[in-house]
UniProtKB/TrEMBL annotation:
Keywords, comma-separated and alphabetical: Cytoplasm, Hydrolase, Nucleus, Protein phosphatase
Pfam families given in the database record: DSPc (PF00782)
Active site (UniProt): C155
Protein name: Dual specificity protein phosphatase
Organismal lineage: Eukaryota, Metazoa, Chordata, Craniata, Vertebrata
Main EC class the enzyme belongs to: hydrolase
Disordered, as annotated region: 1-20, 215-234
Source species of the chain: Electrophorus voltai
GO molecular function, one term: protein tyrosine/serine/threonine phosphatase activity
Subcellular location: Cytoplasm; Nucleus
GO cellular component, one term: nucleus
Keyword Protein transport (UniProt): no
Function: Dual specificity phosphatase able to dephosphorylate phosphotyrosine, phosphoserine and phosphothreonine residues, with a preference for phosphotyrosine as a substrate.
Length: 234
């Protein structure tokens, strides 16, 4: 399956000689985001079973069922510029809810959520749902079907907070650089993280690049048993 020229599940052949990667400046990243992006729509699948959407999508339970969403991650809980849904909003359609309080302001520390949210997303996408169907007259035992879970990550517009968290997930769990993650997402959805979030993503990028130069060290995650908080390293 191809996603923006990259075959999902396959690794591209590395060139014979490759310059050492360095994290670009905020200006370079903003330039990358502004060129070659798609038209804005309410929701887009940016990676297999990961959707980024806006408030309208998050509140449209019928559409969520039609898409097959099983989990909703609200990146816009709080008092200002927020989406007030909660777990109870989705109870009747059996959708699991996870929310964080985050403000779409350059000064807000979104990086504190990068590793916990990435770990949550990883767990959701790594554990498909098993559904037991009713008895079929042609089979002596009930049929079970294994279905992939689908995750909607949203904020108010689906461009800054939610997009930043998805970028962080791709960097942490799919081993992408920030440039690769942006390229992956922007060809499917029009995103625009604020400059403060870009700065925090740059810091995450630099941290991960340095960690991966040291094969004996594991990149920490929210599920590790150590006492070190990965966000303190950013």
């Amino acid at each position: 399956m191809s996603w923006c020229g990259v075959s999902y599940g396959e690794k591209a052949e590395a060139p014979e000689e490759q310059e050492e990667y360095t994290t670009p400046s905020n200006y370079a990243l903003e330039k990358q985001l502004s060129h070659g992006s798609v038209t804005y729509t309410h929701v887009n699948e940016v990676w297999p079973n990961i959707f980024i959407g806006d408030e309208e999508t998050a509140r449209n339970c019928y559409r969520l069922q039609k898409i097959g969403v099983t989990h909703v991650l609200n990146a816009a809980e709080g008092q200002r510029n927020s989406v007030c849904t909660g777990a109870g909003y989705y109870r009747h359609i059996s959708v699991e809810y996870y929310g964080i309080e985050a403000e779409d302001t350059p000064s807000f520390n979104l990086s504190q959520h990068f590793f916990p949210v990435a770990e949550y997303m990883h767990q959701v996408l790594s554990n498909p749902s098993i559904i037991c169907l009713t008895h079929c007259p042609f089979h002596p035992h009930p049929l079970t079907v294994c279905l992939s879970d689908k995750l909607l990550v949203h904020c108010v517009m689906g461009r800054s907070r939610s997009a930043s968290l998805v970028l962080a997930y791709l960097m942490i769990h799919k081993k992408m650089t920030l440039v690769e993650a942006i390229e992956q997402v922007k060809c499917r959805r029009r995103i625009l993280p604020n400059w403060g979030f870009l700065k925090q993503l740059r810091e995450l990028d630099s941290f991960l690049v340095e960690q991966r130069k040291q094969p004996t060290q594991e990149i920490p995650n929210a599920g590790s048993t150590g006492t070190t908080d990965p966000t303190e390293m950013l």
